[in-house]
Design goal:
Oligomer: single chain
């Protein structure tokens, strides 16, 4: 074997061994960090996103039920003896249609009538299994509660009921009013979360009983305090807290990680759960793909990248942020600069201003001398302006013959800068003499680039008309 072959072979072996060793070490570190990342970041973030959606979806039913319980019409109708069935039916039907609920209802503590949007459903009684919710709710003496049950008025459809106490001015119970929401609305959110995040998401009440789950067979039947390995941490989960919390448990050879959030308006807990092996599956697949691709392409990639990336990266960055004709910043670079200026202004109170420069009679220059000469004028204007502005100022091409300067300082400093640029152009020994009009605008809280430049434009137009010259709008 030649020295060249030996060297290439040695370098190849070193590269491959180093690559494989690095990949395996990275995988080992990934396994160690996946658990921490899931517990401290990923699972709580998923829970936060789903919490917002569930909270928004269920807040309206609660608010409407609250309104019903305090509605003067309903209380007056009850006190009148509940004689006008049509009135209560229309009232409940209008609410259901307006807000799109599955059902609306009122259960009278006086007559035991169960009213829905369709009329009287039945008289409730303590021996009817479907009426247990009513007597349990009354005994609890709470303002409102959520209950998941089959809906007798809608063919036994599984429904989330929002039950709200209706009392007279003396605190005497008049009945229970509320609405019923199709549980599919919430389970749909959980199923979407499972599809998007590949995690199990469900809701349990303060007793640990599952209230909403993609698997409807678990609803109102599955207690986390009694099931599987989660029962070991269930009591700690079922403690209302304002912040999210993370837990771990083992079951059937799997290690599970979960995050919980308490939803005070619902008095339910949101649980986001994932097995560690499913989280590591992606890491394992990534390892296999990385090794295969790396064995075939790493040498070629390293050689080609080292030669080409350094050469092209600088050019691409310049092209992406500069005007190709003049070399001034382009619109993208200007927007980035404005974000930085506005952040410093709002965070630290640093004043900054914008100066718009519009070359006078530029079209006439193009018409008389040609576009090539016009292009040279633009280049010379940019070169001269750059010598005047500070390194921290940003000069951008705003339009065909318009330029924009972002600079630290107020209107006075901006006006002085515009005058210096004008004097510098006047002193330059140019083949074509050029002048410009300008407008100034100071950054105000809440400004966007468009709103700020609009004010500068207006100032410039007034400047051209001889009115309110160089004044900030």
């Amino acid at each position: 074997m030649s020295v060249k072959t030996k060297l290439i072979t040695a370098l190849t072996l070193i590269l491959l061994v180093s690559f494989l060793a690095t990949s395996l070490i990275n995988y080992a570190f990934t396994r160690a960090t996946v658990r921490e990342e899931l517990l401290n970041s990923s699972l709580p973030l998923t829970g936060k996103n789903i919490y917002s959606e569930v909270h928004a979806d269920m807040l309206r039913p609660i608010l409407v039920s609250t309104s019903m319980a305090n509605d003067a019409f309903l209380k007056n109708w009850i006190k009148s003896g509940e004689t006008d069935l049509g009135a209560i039916t229309r009232y409940l039907s209008d609410l259901r249609d307006k807000y799109g609920f599955l059902t609306t209802f009122f259960v009278s503590a006086t007559s035991d009538n169960y009213y829905t949007q369709n009329g009287i459903l039945k008289k409730i009684g303590p021996r009817d299994p479907h009426d247990v919710w009513y007597f349990a709710f009354v005994r609890k003496n709470v303002e409102y509660a959520l209950d998941v049950d089959t809906n007798e008025s809608e063919g036994g459809q599984l429904t989330i009921f929002v039950n709200f106490r209706v009392e007279d001015g003396n605190g005497r119970l008049l009945g229970v009013a509320g609405v019923g929401v199709n549980i599919d609305r919430v389970t749909g959110l959980l199923e979407k979360a499972r599809h998007d995040y590949h995690r199990e998401v469900y809701l349990v009440d303060r007793d640990g009983l599952v209230q909403v789950h993609r698997d409807k067979s678990r609803i109102e039947r599955y207690y986390i305090t009694k099931a599987g390995g989660i029962r070991d941490v269930a009591q700690a989960i079922l403690v209302p807290r304002d912040d999210s919390r993370s837990f771990q448990y083992d079951w059937d050879g799997e290690h599970y990680l979960l995050s919980t959030r308490y939803i005070p308006e619902l008095k339910w807990f949101l649980i986001v759960e994932q097995s560690e092996s499913s989280a590591l599956a992606s890491a394992r697949n990534n390892l296999v793909r990385t090794v295969i691709i790396g064995l075939l392409a790493s040498i070629l990639i390293i050689v080609l990248c080292s030669i080409t990336i350094n050469h092209y990266q600088g050019r691409l960055e310049r092209l992406a942020k500069t005007d190709p004709l003049t070399g001034a910043a382009n619109r993208r670079a200007l927007e980035e600069a404005f974000e930085q200026f506005s952040y410093k202004a709002e965070r630290y109170g640093r004043l900054f201003s914008a100066v718009i420069i519009d070359l006078n009679k530029f079209k006439a220059i193009n018409d008389e001398y040609g576009h090539l000469a016009g292009d040279n004028v633009l280049k010379e204007v940019v070169a001269t302006t750059r010598r005047i502005i500070r390194p921290t100022d940003v000069l951008a091409r705003w339009g065909g013959d318009e330029f924009l300067i972002l600079m630290d300082g107020g209107i006075e400093e901006a006006g002085a800068l515009a005058e210096r640029v004008g004097c510098a152009l006047a002193d330059e020994e140019l083949d074509i003499r050029v002048t410009f009009s300008h407008g100034l605008a100071r950054f105000e809280k809440g400004d966007t680039l468009e709103s700020m430049t609009h004010r500068a434009d207006q100032a410039m137009y007034r400047s051209k008309d001889g009115e309110c010259r160089d004044r900030d709008l």
